[in-house]
Amino acid sequence: MSNAHHVIELTKYLYKIPEAMVLLSMSRSVIYEQMRAGRLRFVKQGRATLVSATAIRDYVSLLEQESVVHYGETA
Q1: Is the pLDDT of residue 8 over 80?
Q2: Which residues does 45 contact at the CB level (< 8 Å), separation at least 6?
Q3: 22 burial class (0-12, 13-18, 19+ CB within 10 angstroms)?
Q4: CB atoms < 10 A from the CB of 42, how many?
Q5: DSSP 3-state helix, strand, coil percentages of the chain (rounded to 5)?
Q6: What pTM did the predictor assign?
Q7: Cys-Cys with 55: which of 12, 30, 33, 41 at CB 3.0–4.6 Å?
Q8: Residue from 21, 19, 23, 61 nearest 39 by CA
Q9: What's the number of CA atoms in the CB half-sphere (13 Å) around residue 33?
Q10: d(C-alpha 4, C-alpha 65), whole Å
Q11: In this structure, what is the dihedral angle of CA atoms 24, 26, 30, 31, given to the nearest 10 degrees?
């Protein structure tokens, strides 16, 4: 009898700041700077600061839109 492992991938909806740092490849200070500027949305659950998967996707979209704007410009 084979021992097949079934992996169930669950979507995570909320990420702690260290997880958001990894997902976005950004330092803690940059993450907090973007949160203070209102560019990266976050929620508070008790004392924990969490960033939603939607907020991360929206922030990446914002960065992509900004890079498109500058794409045609000369240095």
Answers
A1: no
A2: 14
A3: exposed
A4: 18
A5: 50, 15, 35
A6: 0.76
A7: 41
A8: 61
A9: 5
A10: 44
A11: 40
Amino acid in position 3: N
Give mean pLDDT, residues 63-68. 90
Beta bridge partners of 51: 15
The neighbour count for residue 52, using CB atoms within 10 Å, is 16
What is the spatial distance between Cα 36 and Cα 32, in angstroms, rounded to a whole number?
A: 6
What six digits make up the tokens of 18? 């260290």
Show the tokens assigned to 30.
């940059």
Q: Which two tokens stand for residue 26?
A: 């950004």
Alpha-helix runs per DSSP H in the chain: 17-24, 28-36, 53-71
- pLDDT tens digits, residue range 32-52? 999 999 999 999 999 999 999
Report the run of H or E that residue 5 belongs to, with start and end. Answer: none
